[in-house]
Amino acid sequence: MYYHMCSLNVLGIKMLHPVQLFKILSDDTRLTIIVLLREAGELCVCDICTATSLSQPKISRHIAILRESGLVLDRREGKWIHYKLSPNMPSWAVETITTTWQYLREDIHLRLLKCVSSKC
User: Fold this and answer.
1) What's the number of domains the chain is made of?
2) Residue 68 — φ and ψ, nearest 5°?
3) pTM here?
């Protein structure tokens, strides 16, 4: 499995700062995507669309922002792209996402149940 990381780190390359994380997660769609990935581990774009009841172009636009920030990695499998949280996130960002996930876990679990009955 090969994942792309769009933003790198230190040596003259972008790093994620707390204010950037909060700006990124201030959008409900991006927050939902991040928490869905925290719960599921990895999801294809069709599952994210089903869980959020949003169109693929809208999800792709938000995922592009998440990828550029270095929060999300992607991999292609056939015609589908699968996403997961980056293991290279700063620990403070992981803690923030985990705390949010714990608070929203019941709602996220219900959203993911919609994906089980859906086939890409």
Assistant:
1) 1
2) -60, -30
3) 0.82
